[in-house]
Amino acid sequence: MPSFDGGHYFFTALLPINNHGIAEHGHFKSSPVHMVRDALEALPTALQTRASETIGIQSPFARSLRTHFVRLFVIDAAYYNGRDTADSILSAIEKTDLLKAQPVDRMNSPYLVFVADFDPAPDGAPEPRSWLEELWTLSPRELSSVFEYCYGFDGKADAAAFASFVMKGEIDTTMPFNDYWTVPPPLPTMPLWPLALPPLAGLLIGAGVGWGTQSIWLGAIIALALAAAGIVYDYTTVMKVGATPFPTAPNSTLRDVLKALYLQQAFARFAAAQQRSNPAQLRAAFAKFVAETQPGDVTGPTQPPGVVRSSFAPEAL
Amino acid sequence: MRSLDLADIQGGLLRAYGRLGFPKARYFFLTVRDGQKGRRFVEAIRPRVTTASRWEDPRRGELLLRTHHPKVTDAIRATGVSDYPGEVQLLKPKVAINIAFSFLGLHALDVPVRTLRGMPDEFIDGMEKRAEMLGDTPWFDRRDTIWRDASAPGKQVHIMVSMNAEMDPDTGAPTPELDVETAWLQRLCTESEGGVELLSGNGPQNLPYQEMSAVLRDDNGQKAPSNKEHFQLSDGFGDPVFSGQYGPTAEKTKQVGGGKLLPDGKTWAPLATGEFLLGYPDEAQEIPDAGMPIEFSRNGTFMAYRKLHENVASFQTYMAEQGRLYAAASGLDAADAQATVSAKMVGRWDDGVPLMAAPDVGKWRAFQAKLKAAQIAKDKKTLAAIAAEYVDFTFRPDQTGATCPMTSHLRRVNTRDTLDPHFTSPDPKSWQGSALNNRRRILRRGLPYGAVDPAHPTDDGEHGIVFLAVCSSLFRQFEFLQQQWVQYGLDFNVGSDTCPIVGNHGPEAKYVIPVDPDGAETPFVCGGVPQFVEPRGGEYFFVPSMTALRLIGMGIVDPT
Known about the structure:
The complex is a heterodimer.
Chain A: E1 4-5, E2 8-16, E3 23-25, E4 28-30, H1 32-42, H2 50-53, E5 67-75, H3 88-94, E6 111-118, H4 129-138, H5 140-147, H6 159-167, E7 170-171, H7 192-213, H8 216-242, H9 254-273, H10 279-293
Antiparallel strand pairs in A: 1-2, 2-6, 2-7, 3-4, 5-6
Helix pairs in contact in A: 1-5, 4-6, 7-8, 9-10
Chain B: E1 24-32, H1 35-45, E2 55-56, H2 72-78, E3 90-91, E4 95-101, H3 103-108, H4 113-116, H5 121-125, H6 131-134, H7 145-148, E5 159-165, E6 167-168, E7 173-174, H8 177-191, E8 196-198, E9 210-213, E10 216-219, E11 222-225, H9 248-258, E12 260-261, E13 268-269, H10 294-297, E14 301-310, H11 312-330, H12 334-346, H13 361-376, H14 380-389, H15 409-413, E15 443-450, E16 463-471, H16 474-486, E17 511-513, E18 524-526, E19 533-543, H17 546-554
């Protein structure tokens, strides 16, 4: 399952938009795909930049403690880059009719692309269903405004129906983005010699049979057949090992990341405040720091999702 | 192709408003003094903008009989097929409101430089800088004040808001809603607190808008819009037909004569959508140039606004004079001779019947008689066939121009198969149809303005045509047409002779009515052609899609 990798679920769905006729939204009448864009552009982003944090309207996706990233965008049409390049001499020889239009790829409808990176359910509930249901439970209104013009979206959907609807458009994520490894991950290695064994054994058996029966042909055929079988076995083995998900990075759930961000900031303040302390003072202060920040507890105190910095009481630390 | 996103495309592009039952119009030109207030103004207008969505017209007359000459679209409707794509979800409005921006307007509204620099050169230049090439400079100081002042600070034309309106058939006046909408627009300007100013300076009275109206005719005591302009010529037949503009069934009928002619010389196909709408492949299978991101451009287009004054007295006097001379040369009576000279210059008789369908006066009269009989008998089958004859022709049967002169207005601006490099070849395999014409088509929109008393025509006064050319490349389509085919004659082997109707006529302008070189007749030369049409100003505009309009209004165009 390539969508699950590095301990995270990398979700990709392509949902066709029913772009027929006019959609009415408030006092606007416009095309459905335009309404989708309008909804997306009005959807607040997380307060994760200096520019956006003053806006104060939080992204609905920050309501989840499992969602690392979400990206939504519209693909209107397959972008067309003009006729295939051709060599003019070859075209002349082939008598290419330049007045005849080449076929142009097209999509039957615009698509809403939904991409996310989230932590799988801690209780092992099947994904992406569990996450999608959680998302719907947290933000039904916002999700409706974005997805309502997609084929198959039921406006009165409950969480289960929403998850089923989105999962119909799911495609494999073939290139997930793992960024939580700070050291090289322990990737499985395969020494070469065990892979060389099966084909070599096949050759040896063939040679043995040829010697035993005194028939070069029979020996050669068996040797080649068994060696080929050995190569197929090797190939299958390598692909199987390759399909194993990237190992989970330590402490890489959203809660871990938020706690880490919180601790970094808290510790920077601590370090600045204790610059000229003597060892006894430092020891006492650090004990207080640990007691207050609870480094081992990801549930709190911590940084909330969707913000660019933790907030500390002015007098704290 | 996938059907067009009609609700995202502004109205009046797929179909001319004039032909959709809006014979009246008012065009407003505005300048933006403050980007933020300007965007707020755009946002206030946006929900009112009329799109290309299909609507139902409860006031439409009986098909094929409601107009003076039968229309192909009516012939299609009469078979029970819709001539318009999409589904009906709206009622036709009384006033259609649309909006377009000049390059400086987009700049004033803070569209990012990265988007603006993707715009085509001619649009960045604006019409005034292109005047030399368009042939406009001789009439520069006769332009309306608004265009003469447009380079002055604070007087640049940034936004064009158009209102196309229905008419009260009893009075011939615009529907009263037009005044209501006008007041609304003026109020929006007032409420912008100096951010947006409505510019005056249209016409000699310096009006705050350009008023337009179809030339009206009497119809049993009521006023009805005609398809005539002030020269009393019927106009607006040969509009291009592009893929997606009509429903799939209607397209098959409309493309005949309106689309492109394929190399076999007889099959027609719709032109590529990208010739008229941005974001789609054009006839060269390229995506036309425009600003990025692609959703800023897609479903938008460019439009040239040109106010063209008509010297009606000069036209009538000259045609009468040449008619007398032609009568003496041809043996026709004066009226028929005048009609013939006029038809030879235009390419159509004054009622729109093309020379290719009725090459001489006799055949024209026969055409008219056939039409009249079918109208009286309400013979819709014949009317549908007649409707097709106005557009369904090629020029291959007329290789010398003896029927329809190469340099007539109609044959210049839509050359059809005339410029096929193998036009005269007897070998059909070498033919290339209308290939050299396909990238030079424009959607003609607009309406006449002012009024002329047909009994006492004048050159002076305020009357002419507001000509709107809609295309995805003003440079390749509109400007090429104007420079090479209207103001020049080399492609038609007539040197520097210009279009007899809309071209610039110098002191010795002439027009040659050719004849069959193998026949006994001699060509007739119309000498000293006076100036019939004079530009009174204009500008190039970008007509955004509804998506792009929102991006402009919200100030969130993101070219990255």
